From TrEMBL:
<feature type="transmembrane region" description="Helical">
    <location>
        <begin position="48"/>
        <end position="72"/>
    </location>
</feature>
<dbReference type="InterPro" id="IPR016174">
    <property type="entry name" value="Di-haem_cyt_TM"/>
</dbReference>
<keyword id="KW-0472">Membrane</keyword>
<comment type="similarity">
    <text>Belongs to the cytochrome b561 family.</text>
</comment>
<keyword id="KW-1133">Transmembrane helix</keyword>
<feature type="transmembrane region" description="Helical">
    <location>
        <begin position="12"/>
        <end position="36"/>
    </location>
</feature>
<feature type="domain" description="Cytochrome b561 bacterial/Ni-hydrogenase">
    <location>
        <begin position="9"/>
        <end position="174"/>
    </location>
</feature>
<dbReference type="Pfam" id="PF01292">
    <property type="entry name" value="Ni_hydr_CYTB"/>
</dbReference>
<dbReference type="InterPro" id="IPR011577">
    <property type="entry name" value="Cyt_b561_bac/Ni-Hgenase"/>
</dbReference>
<keyword id="KW-1003">Cell membrane</keyword>
<feature type="transmembrane region" description="Helical">
    <location>
        <begin position="93"/>
        <end position="118"/>
    </location>
</feature>
<keyword id="KW-0813">Transport</keyword>
<protein>
    <recommendedName>
        <fullName>Cytochrome b561 bacterial/Ni-hydrogenase domain-containing protein</fullName>
    </recommendedName>
</protein>
<keyword id="KW-0408">Iron</keyword>
<dbReference type="InterPro" id="IPR052168">
    <property type="entry name" value="Cytochrome_b561_oxidase"/>
</dbReference>
<keyword id="KW-0479">Metal-binding</keyword>
<keyword id="KW-0349">Heme</keyword>
Length: 178
């Protein structure tokens, strides 16, 4: 498989970034829920340590993906026969995902910095953790997490629609099947 995308299929770099990011986002959502529901401050700090590291990784991967598209690669053409409104919806969801991810990373980092929790999470400072809800970026982080889930459901639903209803083998373009 070539590193760069062709007119029919995404290249290895785009596919790898996509699937690593997707899997990490699912883990992030799970760790965020686990941290929010943890009654043990030490366990919450340990979960948030992993959550924060994964968040930074997702942010870096997203920036790399955007730079890859801008500097080195092109996206395959839209599936033939795709109505204009679907092409607009597709672009809107993709750009929405990139934007929400980058703002979520920023709001997560801002929450850690504004509350001083970064020292507790990464440096072993005294527990319990501060009240995250006391800073505005935390509220934005929660709202964006819900928006991210909606965008992901739209993205996944559209991919499955194309694969199984339209039969245009969209998933094969992203490395799943032929």
């Amino acid at each position: 498989m070539p590193l760069k995308s062709t007119a029919e299929r995404y290249g290895l770099v785009a596919i790898t970034i996509h699937w690593v990011t997707a899997l990490t986002i699912f883990a992030m959502l799970g760790s965020g829920l686990a941290a929010a529901n943890s009654a043990d401050p030490a366990a919450e700090a340990a979960i948030l340590r992993v959550h924060a590291i994964m968040g930074i990784c997702i942010g870096v991967l997203t920036v790399l993906r955007i730079l890859w598209w801008l500097a080195a690669d092109r996206r395959p053409a839209a599936p033939s026969g795709m109505p204009g409104w679907q092409a607009i919806a597709s672009k809107s969801v993709h750009y929405g995902l990139y934007g929400v991810i980058l703002v979520m990373v920023s709001s997560g980092v801002a929450t850690l910095l504004l509350t001083g929790a970064s020292q507790q999470i990464f440096g072993g400072g005294a527990l319990p953790l501060p009240d995250f809800s006391a800073v505005p970026p935390y509220s934005a982080h929660g709202i964006l997490a819900r928006l991210l889930i909606v965008l992901m459901l739209g993205h996944i639903g559209a991919a499955l629609y194309h694969q199984f209803i339209r039969g245009d083998r969209l998933l094969a373009r992203m490395g799943l099947g032929r």
